[in-house]
TrEMBL record:
<dbReference type="GO" id="GO:0046100">
    <property type="term" value="P:hypoxanthine metabolic process"/>
</dbReference>
<keyword id="KW-0808">Transferase</keyword>
<dbReference type="GO" id="GO:0032264">
    <property type="term" value="P:IMP salvage"/>
</dbReference>
<dbReference type="GO" id="GO:0005737">
    <property type="term" value="C:cytoplasm"/>
</dbReference>
<dbReference type="InterPro" id="IPR000836">
    <property type="entry name" value="PRTase_dom"/>
</dbReference>
<keyword id="KW-0328">Glycosyltransferase</keyword>
<dbReference type="GO" id="GO:0004422">
    <property type="term" value="F:hypoxanthine phosphoribosyltransferase activity"/>
</dbReference>
<protein>
    <recommendedName>
        <fullName>Phosphoribosyltransferase domain-containing protein</fullName>
    </recommendedName>
</protein>
<dbReference type="GO" id="GO:0032263">
    <property type="term" value="P:GMP salvage"/>
</dbReference>
<dbReference type="GO" id="GO:0032265">
    <property type="term" value="P:XMP salvage"/>
</dbReference>
<dbReference type="InterPro" id="IPR029057">
    <property type="entry name" value="PRTase-like"/>
</dbReference>
Length: 152
């Protein structure tokens, strides 16, 4: 750690996520949503420890692609670092969020911008889907969200 960086092995990271899973498992998530490529690694490791609450099997991982700092086609230099750009979204699969306990997973949360965008947009998608249901069924189908971030 002489240069200010902590170097951790895969096994050490696996153990850290395993320890964090002790706080996540009681919440009983039944779907993981990984933000971008970086969210897949902690999601994949986390599902080694946290199993589906009803089946005991692996929890499915869905992906959304969001970019805040990348240079992408059609993105101006003024947008980079200020505006979240969608590169992949759930689309019609957002119906599958209804009534679920969804854990949103990312590897880093340095500004909360991307994470806040993901939560807001996913909640809006759920609300749109709830409007299609009879009013009496909406509360039971409301999605519960939580967040796991590898590093702040």
């Amino acid at each position: 750690m002489s240069d200010g960086h902590l170097r951790a092995t895969y096994n050490e990271i696996h153990a850290i996520i395993g320890k964090a899973s002790e706080n996540i498992a009681p919440w009983k998530p039944d779907l993981f949503i990984a933000i971008g490529g970086g969210g897949f690694f902690p999601a994949r490791v986390l599902r080694s420890f946290v199993k589906h609450p009803n089946t005991g099997k692996n929890i499915s991982i869905q992906a959304i692609g969001l970019s805040l700092y990348e240079e992408l086609p059609g993105v101006t230099s003024e947008q980079i670092g200020r505006e979240v750009v969608r590169t992949q979204w759930l689309g019609p699969e957002s119906r599958a969020l209804l009534g679920r306990r969804v854990l949103i997973i990312d590897e880093v949360d340095d500004s909360r911008t991307t994470l806040a965008y993901a939560i807001k947009e996913l909640q809006q998608d759920v609300e749109e889907q709830l409007k299609l249901l009879p009013e009496a069924e909406r509360d039971a189908k409301r999605t519960k969200f939580a967040v796991f971030v590898g590093k702040k």
